[in-house]
Amino acid sequence: MLRWTITFIIIAIIAGILGFGGIAGGAASIAKILFFIFIVLFILSLLKGVVKK
To answer: Mind telling me which InterPro entries this protein's record contains (predicted)?
Structure first.
């Protein structure tokens, strides 16, 4: 999931440089959503590991 976030960030940067503001904004929004989902899943997996011990 983190790989997809990085991919969309790169797409947003390239689209922003080339002047495609709408595509850059959309890709940045998707990257932000994927990043927060990744963080939540990461924290849940950490908590699950702590509870099992």
So the answer is: DUF1328
